[in-house]
């Protein structure tokens, strides 16, 4: 039901854009007003969220670790999974962001049986989620970078080179992009995982399904524009360049599928800062990832400590409550007779 509700919301967005830019002839609103407003909301919301996270004090070093901490010289440290210096933490963050290292070590719980058919709980490697995530994220990244050519004239050489290698298969006309296949395949596999994995399906909410359906809708509408409707790319570039240059004039003959695609992208921009998709920026500010595990070498002072409250040692505590503790039968370092 949660998945169906999310799908219906995305379909409703498609209908709104189709009717608004088609029958209602509101192309200017869907081409300029809505995308411009969505971009402003995205920038302001993203910045506010990042600033809010950055201002929160983290008085202690609390990284999650998966290896041996720096200790004695003869004990080998796992420098990337348990970093104790800034460069080691940088490498850990780079591996986390670029290769999803922690997700690569993902495991699942299975029930096996020994020779005597006794049940045994075991943990085995599960790389499928890592593979789906890699396909989806890198496909999405390449698609976004490739779309930058619509905002620039002339097109920068790195983007043109990326476009060339992305379409190097030279299949069909227009040429199929590899990143399109990666994006659609990745998001579809992530959706199927939520459908068919009972444990994941049980904990999934509407805000888990909605962004996946929305991104899938964006990808499919883009594929429809390119391979079925075969829209005029120069007319679309005129619209995009007009949005950048504040020249709000929609060329004639732009297919309604472009406005559907653009409206779904605008919805994603508005939704982004208020959703779990903010992990894109949040991963860099996560204290469980970006901090060094050097608590054996560095003293961390709690910034929330009241300077007016003086330290109270256990010796002073026992001196203050020795008689009640003795009467209660609690162990004491010094009995009342010894303290006297």
TrEMBL record:
Q: Which Gene3D superfamilies match?
A: Transmembrane di-heme cytochromes, Chain C
Signal sequence span is 1-23
User: Where are the bilayer-spanning segments?
Assistant: 27-48, 128-148, 168-192, 212-229, 256-274
Which residues does the UniProt record annotate as the domain NarG-like? 125-280
For this entry, list what GO says about its biological process: anaerobic electron transport chain
Gene Ontology molecular-function annotations: electron transfer activity; heme binding; nitrate reductase activity
List the InterPro entries hit by this protein, alphabetically: DsrM, Heme-iron_electron_transfer, NarG-like_domain, NarG-like_sf
Q: What is its main location?
A: membrane
Q: Give the UniProt entry's GO cellular component terms.
A: plasma membrane
**Annotated keywords:** Cell membrane, Electron transport, Membrane, Oxidoreductase, Signal, Transmembrane, Transmembrane helix, Transport
Its record classes its membrane topology as: Multi-pass membrane protein
Annotated compartments:
Cell membrane
Output this protein's name.
Answer: Putative sulfite reductase-associated electron transfer protein DsrM
């Amino acid at each position: 039901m949660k998945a169906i509700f999310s799908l219906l919301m995305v379909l409703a967005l498609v209908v709104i854009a189709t009717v608004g830019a088609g029958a209602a002839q509101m192309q200017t609103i869907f081409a300029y007003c809505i995308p411009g407003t969505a971009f402003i909301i995205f920038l302001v919301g993203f910045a506010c969220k990042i600033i809010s996270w950055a201002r929160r004090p983290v008085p202690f070093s609390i990284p999650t670790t998966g290896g041996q901490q720096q200790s004695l010289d003869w004990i080998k440290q796992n420098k990337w999974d348990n970093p104790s210096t800034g460069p080691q933490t940088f490498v850990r963050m780079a591996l986390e962001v670029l290769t999803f290292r922690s997700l690569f070590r993902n495991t699942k719980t299975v029930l096996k049986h020994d020779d005597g058919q006794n049940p045994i709980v075991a943990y085995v490697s599960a790389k499928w989620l890592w593979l789906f995530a890699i396909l989806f994220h890198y496909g999405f990244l390449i698609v976004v970078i490739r779309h930058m050519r619509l905002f620039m004239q002339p097109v920068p050489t790195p983007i043109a080179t990326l476009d060339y290698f992305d379409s190097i298969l030279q299949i069909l006309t227009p040429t199929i992009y590899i990143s399109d296949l990666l994006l659609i395949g990745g998001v579809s596999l992530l959706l199927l995982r939520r459908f068919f994995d009972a444990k994941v399906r049980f904990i999934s909410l509407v805000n888990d399904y909605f962004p996946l359906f929305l991104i899938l809708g964006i990808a499919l509408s883009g594929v429809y524009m390119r391979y079925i409707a075969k829209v005029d790319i120069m007319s679309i570039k005129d619209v995009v360049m007009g949005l950048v240059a504040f020249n709000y004039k929609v060329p004639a003959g732009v297919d309604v599928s472009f406005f559907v695609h653009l409206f779904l992208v605008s919805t994603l921009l508005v939704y982004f800062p208020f959703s779990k998709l903010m992990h894109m920026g949040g991963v860099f500010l996560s204290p469980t990832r970006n901090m060094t595990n050097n608590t054996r070498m560095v003293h961390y002072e709690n910034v929330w400590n009241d300077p007016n409250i003086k330290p109270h040692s256990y010796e002073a505590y026992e001196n203050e409550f020795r008689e009640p503790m003795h009467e209660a039968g609690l162990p004491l370092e010094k009995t009342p007779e010894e303290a006297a």
